[in-house]
Specification:
This protein is of the alpha/beta class and about 150 residues long. The protein is built from six helices and five strands; from the N terminus they run E-H-E-H-H-E-H-E-H-H-E. The chain has a five-stranded parallel β-sheet, sandwiched between helices. Helix 4 crosses helix 6 (about 125-135). It starts with 5 loop residues before the first strand and ends with a strand. The mean pLDDT is about 90.
């Protein structure tokens, strides 16, 4: 059976992301289990904010980063499980795939639907679907009503 010592969990601060974190904490094992929380500051949302004069690009990025780091600090693992937090800018599915490779994650655990809701994905596809298609790592996708 595959041992999952390092698991990457993309976090968009949805209920699905919290469920994925809880699942990952139960899943990790080994001598030094680690859950790597990744928040991707969506480049398209940053561009939208800048285009609508909500702030200069650097100000928008810094505000999102600070908010993300505060949110990630709320994810507390049980004793014996280490948590690593990462905040990057980019296209979510691409950054998830890239970080999973860079960090040599044993698996990616994520929810089927995040903050975008349940209608958009049927029209455009979900981040989870893109990650499944592009990742060379195992991807565990939790159902919407877990």
């Amino acid at each position: 059976m595959q041992e999952f010592n390092a698991v990457l969990v993309p976090v968009d601060f949805s209920t699905a992301a919290r469920d994925a974190f809880n699942y990952a904490v139960e899943l990790v094992s080994g001598a030094e289990p680690v859950v790597m929380l990744l928040h991707v500051m969506d480049k398209s949302q940053i561009d939208f904010a800048v285009a609508h004069e909500l702030g200069a690009r650097e100000e928008v990025i810094e505000a999102i980063r600070v908010r993300a780091e505060r949110g990630l600090a709320d994810y507390r693992p049980p004793p014996g499980v280490q948590v690593m937090t990462i905040v990057v800018e980019g296209t979510p599915f691409l950054e998830i795939i890239k970080k999973a490779e860079e960090l040599r994650a044993d698996a990616i655990v994520m929810g089927k639907f995040g903050l975008r809701g349940k209608i958009d994905p049927y029209l455009f596809g979900t981040t989870a679907e893109h990650v499944i298609r592009g990742s060379t790592r195992p991807v565990i996708v939790l159902p919407a009503n877990r």
